[in-house]
Amino acid sequence: MENGIRNFEFQNPTKIVFGKDQIKRINDLIPQDAKVLILYGGGSVKKFGTFDRVVEALGNREWAEFGGIEANPTYETLIQAVDKIKAEGYDYLLAVGGGSVIDGVKFVAAGAVFDGDPVDMFGSGVGKGLPVTKALPFGTVLTLPATASEMNNNSVVTFVEKQAKISFASPHTYPQFSILEPEATYTLPKRQLANGVIDSFIHVMEAYLTYPIEAKVQDRWAEGLLQTLIEIGPDVVDEDNHDYATRANFMWTATNALNRFISPGVPQDWATHQLGHEMTLAFGIDHARTLSIVLPAMMKVRKQQKWDKLLQYAERVWDIRGDSNLTDEEKIDLAIKKTEDFFAGLGAPIRFADVDLDETDIPGLVEALVRHKKENISERGDFTTEDARAVYTAAL
Ligand code: NZQ
Ligand code: ZN
């Protein structure tokens, strides 16, 4: 029986600059003589003025732009940015956007200086999975709180031709700085606000809903983030409610959900994310909307393995206490139901039918997991292909 926090090393080098009117701080954060490439997505940052504010902050620095990084960024698009950097020579990258742009820039920053074919930065049957030993420096301006990519070193990239959505991470792919202006969220539509709340919630759950090892700080920090999301979620998804305090709490909770503060030295799962990535790849469903479907089913199918933590989750997060006259299993089932109701209340799907999928879609999803070598995942490495099939089936 594992007991006590595991050995760990932890370092997060990203400087966070948080608050109102902080984009101007870019002028102090990027070297004066840097030649800067600004990377962004489908155009929201131009439409809402963020791009212009970034350009103003860059002052007299030489700069150019690379737009068109799509949601769920593709290797095929990003490699064009790598080629541009190799041809034109930039020494600082600036990501302006949500998780997709930031993830994309991590790949571009590493790919531009990678010795060999950048595809080999990835494993999972796509490349050789070679270590990333260097990257160009980069900063970010966050416009969508959800992934915490602004304060971690993960990058998730979609390979259109090879049909894979996979990630890499390196100590060299942390942003040097990230600008977090909560007011940037005021232009987000309800669906993206809900995505942000749900993705953050499930990042915490992947690090929390495993088995207890007496890691009291990590547990209570995770429970605090979950309770914050439950409390503010309904207000956050009201797109017309531009309450600064609500959006500031939302933005900082999302960052804390996956900047690794809650996960050093504890078991983690991430199976919900792996099953979700296959749904995004096959059907183009938003990342968070796959998670709100998979997580409740995961809790039901893995109830025995996660029993102790599910009970703790019921009691501490949802306040379903010992004096409630419920059996332990009834408490767990009620907590799962409350989780589903929370997601549905934000307008997110919780079943296959909610996104027009059915049982005929399951075999292809399971085959893709095998093809991408996503087997024996979970906190104990015991999550089999049959478990994956059972989870997808429980989500019908
Ligand atoms: O492309 P533009 O025009 O900018 O529009 C975007 C996009 O269509 C729009 N948007 C962003 N900020 C906006 C805005 N619209 C109005 N106002 C604003 N302020 O929102 C849409 C979605 O953006 P995207 O960046 O795709 O969303 P998100 O931040 O949810 O990122 C999703 C990606 O991150 C990966 C996911 O797999 C997915 O590819 N993840 C990255 C993680 C990490 N790096 O640690 C962890 C996550 O689990 C996740 O896997
Ligand atoms: Zn996620």
UniProtKB/TrEMBL annotation:
SUPFAM superfamilies linked to this entry: Dehydroquinate synthase-like (SSF56796)
Highest rank taxon of the organism: Bacteria
Domain Fe-containing alcohol dehydrogenase-like C-terminal: residue ranges: 194-395
GO molecular function: alcohol dehydrogenase (NADP+) activity; butanol dehydrogenase (NAD+) activity; metal ion binding; methylglyoxal reductase (NADPH) (acetol producing) activity
Keyword Transcription: no
Keyword Ubl conjugation listed: no
Protein known as: Iron-containing alcohol dehydrogenase
